């Protein structure tokens, strides 16, 4: 919905007034008033003390104009930020989300199968070899008789994105030893940690608020609640493949797939908050993957030879921008035309795209890059 907000018309509470216009008005007003009072004409020239004083006043007036303009704009979703935005969206009952902790599933394994139950207390801490960040079990767990391990959901003790992307197996140090438990390891990379909600995300949710007034389960209402559950969401696709079944597919801000733990957290929030119609059966998961490869050859104008190295770097960045764009929305068709557009804008004279070819993508799928081959074909005459 950010695009919808950005497309709203620009407004100004001070018109198009400029500093030079204010200076000219002050000079004109002074000359007019001087003649009224003295019956003598006066022309102020640059560098005169009175002219300099009026110029200094003009700067202060311009600053006041800008403050008035800012104060007016802070009443609108398109411009508000920071504390202004917090106060604006509070009218709609929306609050900025605090930072959230990263999550993962940790497996606690015994040195040998025991003849009695082994307890894993709630709050048992684990960390990495470097002790970068600590995770703790969210609930009490037990390793039953005859079993060698138990998997326990854990959360970082430090909120924010710092707890994300710890590789599987890296949480291998038990800070709080448990008798007979020999090893621990996270089964997947940690994820789900979010910093305090950004202005962009908060404005986006506030824009969607009217949709959640309905109890009929419209798509935008689900989108609002999903983004409330996880503000770092990049995109959400809500479909209903059959009556009373709601299929929600989600991705991160850069098109990355979210872990099962994060998807489950979002699903639990929607269900437990009681915001869905009673008959809806909701599932939250990652979209299906449609793999595509990038294979292109580009050429540079001979007249741009001196800038060839910079253009080559820009082309590399353009391809990265394209792959991020391609994975940025669920259901976005694979569009080679966008790749050509970005490469041309980066300075290429001609671009030959061998792959990808255009391909329609299902509404619950997302394109993801497979291999990438970028070939510089050399200089060509303009």
Low-confidence sequence ranges: none
- List the total number of helices: 9
Largest sheet: 6 strands, antiparallel
Question: How many structural domains can be distinguished in the coordinates?
Answer: 4
Total number of beta strands: 14
Helix content: 25-40%
Distance between termini? 42 Å
Strand-pairing-aware structural class: alpha+beta
Write the layout of secondary structure elements.
Elements: H1 2-6, H2 19-38, H3 49-73, H4 82-90, E1 103-110, E2 118-120, E3 125-127, E4 134-137, E5 141-143, E6 149-156, E7 173-174, E8 181-186, H5 199-208, H6 219-229, E9 233-242, E10 245-252, H7 260-272, E11 281-285, E12 288-301, H8 308-326, H9 336-345, E13 350-355, E14 365-380
Parallel strand pairs: 10-11, 12-14
Antiparallel strand pairs: 1-6, 1-8, 2-5, 3-4, 3-7, 4-6, 9-10, 12-13
Written overview of the protein:
β10 (245-252), α7 (260-272) and β11 form a beta-alpha-beta unit. α6 crosses α7. The strands form four sheets. Strands 7-3-4-6-1-8 form a six-stranded antiparallel sheet, with no helix packed on it. A three-stranded mixed sheet has the order 9-10-11, covered by helices on one side. It has 382 residues and is an alpha+beta fold. The protein is 32% helix and 25% strand. 27% of the residues are buried. The radius of gyration is 30 Å and the shape is extended. It has nine helices and 14 strands. The model has no long low-confidence stretch (mean pLDDT 91). The longest helix is centred in the N-terminal third of the chain and has 25 residues, at 49-73. It folds into four domains: 2-76, no CATH class; 103-186; 212-286, GMP Synthetase, Chain A, domain 3 (2-Layer Sandwich); 290-380, no CATH class. The chain has helices at 2-6, 19-38, 49-73, 82-90, 199-208, 219-229, 260-272, 308-326, 336-345, and strands at 103-110, 118-120, 125-127, 134-137, 141-143, 149-156, 173-174, 181-186, 233-242, 245-252, 281-285, 288-301, 350-355, 365-380.
């Amino acid at each position: 919905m950010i695009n919808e907000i950005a497309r709203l018309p620009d407004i100004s509470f001070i018109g198009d007034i400029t500093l030079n216009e204010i200076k000219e008005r002050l000079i004109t007003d002074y000359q007019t008033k001087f003649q009224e009072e003295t019956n003598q004409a006066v022309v102020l020239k640059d560098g005169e003390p009175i002219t300099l004083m009026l110029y200094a006043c003009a700067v202060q007036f311009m600053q006041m104009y800008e403050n008035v303009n800012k104060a007016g704009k802070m009443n609108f979703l398109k411009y508000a930020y920071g504390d202004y935005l917090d106060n604006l969206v509070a009218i709609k009952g929306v609050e900025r989300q605090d930072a959230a902790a990263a999550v993962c599933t940790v497996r606690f394994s015994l040195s040998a199968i025991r003849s009695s139950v082994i307890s894993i207390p709630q709050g048992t801490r684990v960390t990495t070899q470097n002790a970068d960040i600590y995770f703790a079990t969210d609930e009490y767990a037990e390793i039953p008789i005859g079993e060698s391990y138990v998997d326990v959901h854990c959360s970082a003790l430090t909120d924010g994105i710092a707890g994300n992307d710890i590789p599987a197996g890296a949480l291998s140090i038990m800070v709080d030893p448990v008798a007979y438990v020999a090893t621990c390891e996270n089964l997947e990379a940690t994820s789900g940690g979010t910093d305090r909600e950004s202005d962009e995300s908060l404005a986006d949710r506030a824009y969607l608020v009217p949709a959640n007034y309905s109890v009929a389960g419209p798509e935008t209402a689900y989108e609002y609640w999903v983004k409330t559950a996880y503000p770092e969401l990049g995109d959400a696709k809500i479909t209903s493949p059959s009556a009373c079944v709601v299929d929600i597919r989600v991705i991160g801000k850069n098109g990355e797939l979210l872990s099962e733990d994060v998807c489950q957290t979002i699903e639990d929030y929607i269900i437990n908050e009681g915001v869905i119609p009673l008959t809806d059966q909701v599932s939250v998961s990652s979209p299906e993957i449609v793999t595509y490869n990038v294979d292109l050859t580009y050429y540079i104008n001979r007249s741009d030879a001196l800038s060839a190295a910079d253009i080559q770097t820009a082309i590399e960045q353009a391809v990265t921008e394209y792959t991020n764009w391609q994975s940025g929305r669920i259901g976005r068709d694979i569009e080679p035309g966008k790749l050509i557009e970005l490469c041309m804008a980066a300075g290429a004279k001609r671009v030959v795209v061998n792959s990808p070819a255009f391909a329609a993508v299902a509404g619950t799928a997302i394109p993801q890059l497979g291999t990438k081959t970028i070939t510089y074909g050399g200089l060509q005459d303009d």
